[in-house]
Amino acid sequence: MPTALCRAELLSLEGKDAVAFAQAQFTSDVGALAEGHWQWSAWLDAQGRARALFVLLRVDAERLLAWQPLGDAVAVRDALRRYVFRSAVRLEAIDGWAVHRLDTAPPDAGRQVVASDGGYRLALPGVRPRTAWIGSAMGDADPAALAQWRRDDLTARLPLLAGELAGEFVPQALELERIDAIRFDKGCYPGQEIAARLHFRGGNKRRLQVYRFESAAAAPAPGSAVLVGDTAIGRILYAVADDGDTRGHALAVVTDDARESGATTTEGHVLSPCV
């Protein structure tokens, strides 16, 4: 029985120009994505900063689904529609679907998408194999199951991007190349020139860092400032508490020269860097 985790922030791109449109807008090589498979991808702004990070599913020849584990599908749809012009593509945010955890084994082939029960099943990275089914919501969300799922995201250092952090980070700071979410040698897409220049010439000074946190408060919220003394060195991407609410782990983007320093957040969390 699938365990419901959370609402699925899901954007559908459909039409004879859907793949070409996505190839011209997103950072991954969408043209090389085979039907029935998925890849990580992102959408940058003109300044080369990530507006959204998502799992891109190639459903068939004329349909893609972009699933944002964190983010806002409606906001991305509305922003993307400004670039459709004469392309034969329909952009729609899918309502009423949820992300579910399956206890069955993941698909045999890597990054395969399997149509199942009116939705789609796929394996995701983590320390242990895990399978997601995205489809019509089945029951109430299970907060404990979602917390464990998010811990697996964090352990895999997946740079999930909440809507409030859109336009904050360049691809290198999110380590998008590590998860094969960006290509610097394909045709143009928004922000490509800036991102490619930074890639080939260097100059990025921020990276991902996992912290263990302790606090009497709840887990740090996405966007919380990371401080060393009174100096801001970065921001929290997301965090998840352990069994209680007072300690857990957080993934942040911070400056290289302060990654190994103890830190705090503006809400008073004490942060210890994990190797």
From TrEMBL:
Gene3D superfamilies: 2.40.30.160, Aminomethyltransferase beta-barrel domains. NCBIfam families: ygfZ_signature (TIGR03317). InterPro entries: YgfZ/GCV_T_CS, YgfZ/GcvT. Signal peptide: none annotated. One of its GO terms (biological process) is iron-sulfur cluster assembly. It comes from the Bacteria. This is Aminomethyltransferase folate-binding domain-containing protein. It comes from Dokdonella fugitiva.
